UniProtKB/TrEMBL annotation:
Protein's name according to its UniProt entry: Kinetochore protein NDC80
Family matches, as Pfam families: Ndc80_HEC
Source organism of the structure: Perkinsus olseni (Perkinsus atlanticus)
Biased composition (Polar residues): 24-41
Function text: Acts as a component of the essential kinetochore-associated NDC80 complex, which is required for chromosome segregation and spindle checkpoint activity.
Gene name, Swiss-Prot/TrEMBL: NDC80_2
Length: 178
């Protein structure tokens, strides 16, 4: 059974993919000066690429729950195995487990994305760099979030990242089926 997901606007941040975790967008027109005053809207990320302001309601408990159910359902369906992976895991995950999930999802999207030297394991920064540069994740992920994944201030944005990765993995799965 698929988890309930929030309604989605047809105009998402990506190239027409169907993201059930995207927030509905309002269509109020703003002047150039108003748009320039908004922090984060169109700002540059750490890697120099332009990031848009994340309009998803990531601070909403109900929205985070829907995201967690969406990610959990995908991981369960596609064989992600972890002794700690239970629905409650999404309340405050460990850094190690979070990046294990990221690696799993990146491998589902493209097995060639994570290529590291045999003696060097991928670092969290490497994984986030892949998501930003190769998959073109449209939102910024602060480096401080990588140090404290389960913190109440950083987890919502990282859960948003996971739901976005699941969307990409779903799209990849659909393309493989065609």
């Amino acid at each position: 059974m698929e988890p309930a997901t929030p309604a989605r606007s047809e105009k998402g941040p990506r190239r027409g993919t169907m993201n059930p975790m995207s927030a509905p967008k309002t269509t109020t027109k703003k002047s150039v000066s108003q748009r320039q005053q908004q922090p984060g809207s169109g700002s540059k990320g750490h890697d120099g690429t332009v990031r848009i302001k994340d309009e998803r309601p990531l601070q909403s408990k109900a929205y985070r729950k829907a995201c967690a159910e969406y990610v959990y359902a995908y991981l369960s369906k596609h064989g992600y195995r972890s002794d700690r992976m239970k629905p409650g895991w999404f309340d405050s995950p460990s850094t190690r487990e979070f990046f294990s999930v990221c690696e799993f999802l990146l491998e589902r999207i493209d097995p060639n994305l994570i290529v590291s030297a045999p003696q060097k394991k991928s670092t969290p920064e490497d994984l986030i760099s892949i998501v930003r540069t190769k998959l073109l994740y449209p939102y910024d992920v602060p480096k401080s979030a990588l140090a404290s994944v389960g913190a109440i201030t950083t987890w919502p944005a990282l859960l948003g990242l996971l739901s976005w990765l699941v969307e990409e993995a779903d799209e990849t799965d659909r393309m493989k089926e065609r």
